[in-house]
Amino acid sequence: MSEQSIGVFDSGLGGLTAVKELIKVLPQENIIYFGDTARVPYGSRSEETIKKYARQDANFLLSKNVKLIIAACGTVSSVATELKDTLPVPFTGVVIPTATAAVNATRNGKIGIIGTSATVKSCSYKKEILRQNDRITVFQQDCPLFVNFVENGFISEDDPLVQLMVERYLSDMKKNGIDTLILGCTHFPIIAKAISNYLGGHVRLIDSGKETALYAANMLSSHNILNQSNTLGSCSFYVSDTVDGFMHTAGIFLGRNVSEEVTHITIE
C-alpha cells in the first residue's frame, strides 16, 4: 500500500499549491490530482451541491486506488465535514492543519481568516481556532473574487486590479491589527505577495497548502504507509474541463511542463 498514490482534489487550480508543497515535503510519493475545472468555483454553491461534488471527486480518486485523500479545498473542508467518515482510506482537509498553525503563530491573539463565501459562512476555521484557544480574537472576510482572479491569471503583485481587490477585502483586517492571516482557500497563496505587501511583513500568512502537506506527511507516517522508495514520485493530473488552460497555468504554478500528464475526464 505504501507505493500507492496520494489523491488530491480541488474545485480547480488552487489545489496545485498543495501539490507543490507535497512534492517538497514528500518527493518520493506518487500524486494523483483532480481539478474540477468544469464546475469551479465551489464557494458560491449550495451546501448540498458542495457535498455532492466532494463525494464525486473522492470517488474518482478512490477508483485510482489511492492510499490517502486530501481535499485541498477550503470550501469542501469546511462544508463536507462528514466525508472522512465515509471513505475507506485516511482523509484530511485543510482546516485543522491550517488553524493549528495559526494558533501557534499568533503573538497578539488576533487572527484573520479569508476564504470563499461558503468557507466563511461555515465558520469552520474560527470554530477550530477557538476550540484550541478561546482567548483568540478572530476576524473573517469572504473574498469571492480572489478565486476568479487566480483562475484567470490575474496574480501579479504589481497588477493594479489585484492591488485594488486586496485592499477592498483586507482593509478591515489591517485596521483591526491582525498579526496572522489564514489563507483559507488554496487559491490564495498564489497572490500571497500582493496580500503581504498590503498588510505588511509583520503579518504572518498561513498557507493552507503547506500546512496540509506537512499534516499529510504525519498521517502517512502514523499509518505506516510512507513510500520508502529512493526514487522521485510521479504526478498525474485529471481535469473535468479542457486541458489546455490547465496545462499552461499548472506549468507556471509547479515550475515545469505537465502537458503529458493531464487527462480530461467526465466527473458526472
Commentary on this structure:
The chain folds into two domains: 6-93 and 210-264, Rossmann fold (3-Layer(aba) Sandwich); 95-208, Rossmann fold. 44% of the residues lie in helices and 16% in strands. The protein contains eleven helices and ten strands. A six-stranded parallel beta sheet has the order 4-3-1-2-9-10, sandwiched between helices. The protein has a four-stranded parallel beta sheet with strand order 6-5-7-8, sandwiched between helices. It is globular, with a radius of gyration of 17 Å. It starts with 5 loop residues before the first strand and ends with a strand. The model has no long low-confidence stretch (mean pLDDT 93).
Global morphology: globular
- Fraction of residues in H or I helices: 40-55%
Strand sequence of the main sheet, in spatial order?
A: 4-3-1-2-9-10
CATH architecture classification of the largest domain: 3-Layer(aba) Sandwich
Q: What's the rounded overall pLDDT mean?
A: 93
Main pleated sheet: 6 strands, parallel
Instruction: Enter the CATH topology name of the largest domain.
Output: Rossmann fold
Supply the number of structural domains.
2
Report how far the terminal alpha carbons are from each other: 28 Å
